[in-house]
Amino acid sequence: MKTYMAHASDVVRKWYVVDASGMALGRLASKVAAILRGKNKPIFTPNVDTGDFVIIVNTDKVILTGKKLEKKYYRYHTGHIGGLKEIQYKTLMATKSDLAVYEAVKGMLPKNSLGRQMIKKLKVYKGAEHNQQAQKPEALNLN
Length: 143
Known about the structure:
29% of the residues lie in helices and 18% in strands.
């Protein structure tokens, strides 16, 4: 029996909208990362980007369980000497919740050129409105 290996020309991409209201950040990110990789499709091939487009709305209503709001930090480096910055997740979720969700999903994708190609199919918005109505996205329930 032969194993089916998908080619880039075989992939048909769909658009999905995910409402992140009341969802835990990590659970949301892992499910969205699987859709971006294409693991929900029967034609999944590890070395081909077979995933779909995902739009995440209402990221300002994402929850973090436990004491993560106080104890967890988002760290980044400016590129200058001594330029390590850290922001407490309480502040990050209040100001840039879309960045927190984007980085959580990005961290669950492969760290190579394929992962960089996959993350481009993710659109993240703080509110309930998004700019991709022309693509006619389907609502996706991850609960």
